[in-house]
Amino acid sequence: MNNSGGSSRLAIFTLILASLTMGTPVWASEGIQTPFTIWMMNNEARVLSILAADRRLMDTMSMGNGMLLTPRPAWPRPENRFWRLHLRYFATLNEINQVFQMAQRFGTGQLAKTISSVQPGEWATLGFLGLPACRGRGIAMALNDFCKEAYLNVLGLEKGRDSDLGRRLRASVGKLSDSERRLLSQYFGNFLALYPKNVATRTLLSFLKNGLKKNLSKGVAALFSAKPATAPDDSAGLLLELEETAPTIGSETAETAVVNAEAPPDGTATPTESTASQPVEAGGPEADPFNIWDGDKQPSEKGE
Amino acid sequence: MSSAVVHLIGEKGNFSKKGGTPPPLPREVNSRGSSPAVGRFAPSGLPSLFPRIIEVILALFLTIAAMGLPSEAVTTFFFCPKVGSAYSFEVASSLSSEFTAFETNQPASIAATGTVTVRVIGFRQGMYILDIWENENHTRRFLTPDGTVLGAPGEEPTRLPFFWSLPAGDWEVGQVHRIQKSIPVGSGTVLAAWDLTFKDVDAKTGRARLEIAGHVGLPSDRLIQRSIHAKGMLFFNPAEGCFDQGDWTVSYSLSYSNKEIAVMRDLWNVVESRRISFRLKGVSNE
Questions:
Q1: What 3-state class would DSSP assign to A65?
Q2: A47 contacts chain B (CB < 8 A)
Q3: Helix intervals (H) in A1-33
Q4: How far apart are CA B245 and CA B212, in angstroms?
């Protein structure tokens, strides 16, 4: 009897682990930030292309006398500061997406409960329990810990980084200065004015606005603790909140979401698949960073 | 009065076919800014007197016409740097640029000064052969008397500057000389133009003051608006046979927006200004 119960638990654990491992990887670049970053990269690519061509034309007009050569210093490119800043935005948004996906996948605490209940070390040492010289229980505990660490490593979870997702999120957003966050929020405002139906970006902003004020860490923190989470997460209520707020996030609230992103946590929140894993919504920009003219004709060909 | 003099035809004959023949003096060019066409392309053999007579009659006619005109009214200009001389120019360029996103902006500027040395190493087949150095930048250009660069072995043809040229004939004060060129950009071309306006001639020095205005026909629409304009002043020194001073500014602006359905939003703006000035420091014989 005991054996069959243990086998079923082991099977369930294996299934959960397989689904977690073989599903969308935690560190995938695709996520709720994708439409916005694609839009931004497309805009950057267009402006880079225009500036490169126009500066050549300016060079052409800069020395009209055939008897002269121009001193050619390394012309300053003030836009480079923005491109560097945008790279930091991309890194920040990517990290926010990682936190989001991690909270979505592990925030319920179900995996922590399963890991704690399966105890693979005890199963591995079951055959040696009768031997007097074998310290089966000690070995079992060590094996349990070893297996747990191995699972977490496979899932890409690091204790120092992920034990408090709220802290990680705040640290990520906190790398940006006030003016940089304001600029990012203005970009979001533009994006949502252009693509108001883009659910992925509205979810991202909703997550920044509401998720940061909640305690996201319970379920994930339980994975790193010796015991499973003692109390069930309040995920249902928080999911409902995200569901309700995400569609209402608009360009006017984008600024609040990003600028106030460092607000301290004041509750609990765990996004779920119903809102968090919305696919990239049609209505956003084309997801092709290399098609910089969106398949349209260039302005030169459009004419006016 | 000297400024009103029309540079008349010289004589030397067939120098272009034989490398050893000395090049004509700077003044030995006709009113179209080229060397004596009749003599240069006449077949070798017995010289024909008929073209010479025509030239003399034409010269007399033009001299009389020039004397009857008011001072500074009509002039002919052409490049005629002295062969064997080295022209030293001081060239300064400065750039200021600003990139703006919403109310966040990033300005930048830089300036550089250099000395350009131009050695006129020969005159062959109607072209001055110029050896040009700016620090370690070096090129060689073949310059026709009207200012057109016909060859530049040290430079990529598509990256050559859009050079000014001078009008072929007489140039009246206030008259605009327009030069147009299709400049390759990407897979297409854009049309660029320089307008040189003859303003006046300094009675003492004989230097002519020209106003210049440039324009590049950049494609623009409601979303992406961009423009390149240039404006400045030049001085042509007939005694030295070249521009001896100039100052102009090339201004650029780009306004970049996004549009989706009926919503249009500004995103980035770029404003850039390049100022170039040059001055002839001296001419030496080498």
A1: coil
A2: yes
A3: 2-22
A4: 13
Helix axes A199-210, A34-61, angle to 10 degrees: 110
Between residues A23 and A207, the one the model is more confident about: A207
Contacts of A238 (CB under 8 A, 6+ apart): A214, A267, A268, A269, A270, A271
pLDDT of residue B220: 87
Which residues on adjacent β-strands are paired with residue B282?
A: B88
Q: How far apart are CA B212 and CA A64, in angstroms?
A: 10
Q: What order of strands is seen across the sheet that includes strand B208-216?
A: B149-151, B137-143, B127-134, B104-124, B85-101, B263-285, B242-260, B224-237, B208-216, B188-201, B176-185
Average pLDDT over residues B266-283: 95
Q: Cα B160 from chain centroid?
A: 13
Residue A70: per-residue pLDDT: 75
Print the SS3 string covering B8-71: CCCCCCCCCCCCCCCCCCCCCCCCCCCCCHHHHHCCCCCCCHHHHHHHHHHHHHHHHHHHHCCC
Record: contact A57-B194, CB cut-off 8 A: no
Q: What is the pTM of this model?
A: 0.70
Instruction: Give Dmax (Cα) for chain B.
Output: 80
pLDDT tens digits for range A9-28: 656 555 555 555 554 444 44
Tell whether B206 lies on the interface with A, counting CB pairs under 8 A: no
B163 neighbors A66 (Cβ within 8 angstroms): yes
SS3 A249: coil
Other Cβ atoms less than 10 A from the Cβ of A154: the count is: 11
Distance between CA atoms of residues A235 and A233, nearest Å: 5
Q: Taking a C-beta distance cutoff of 8 angstroms, is the pair B10, B25 a contact? A: yes
- What Å distances lie between residue B61 and B6, B54, B57, B65, B66, CA to CA? 11, 10, 6, 6, 9
Q: Which residues of B touch A63 (CB under 8 A)?
A: 161, 276
At A26, phi and psi to the nearest 5?
Answer: -60, -35
How many other CB atoms are found less than 10 A from the CB of residue B230? 25
Q: How many CA atoms does the CB half-sphere of A70 hold within 13 Å?
A: 28
Q: Kindly report, residue by residue over A119-178, the tens digit of the pLDDT.
A: 777 777 777 766 766 677 777 778 877 887 787 788 777 777 777 778 888 888 889 999
Nearest CA in chain A to B147: A66
Partner-chain contact B258 A63, CB within 8 Å = no
- The pLDDT score that the predictor gives to residue B129 is 95
> What beta strand segments (E) does B135-262 contain?
137-143, 149-151, 171-172, 176-185, 188-201, 208-216, 224-237, 242-260
Q: Is the pLDDT of residue B13 over 90?
A: no
Task: Show Cβ contacts of residue B136 under 8 Å, excluding neighbours closer than 6 positions.
Answer: none
Token pair 């405002």 is found at A189
For A66-100, how does the pLDDT look when each residue is reduced to its tens digit (9 = 90+)? Answer: 998 876 778 889 999 999 999 999 999 999 998 88
Whether chain B has a CB inside 8 Å of the CB on A158: the answer is no
Residue B57 has pLDDT above 90, yes or no: no
Q: pLDDT tens digits for A221-256?
A: 666 665 544 444 554 444 445 555 555 555 555 555
Give residue B158's identity as a one-letter amino acid code. Answer: T
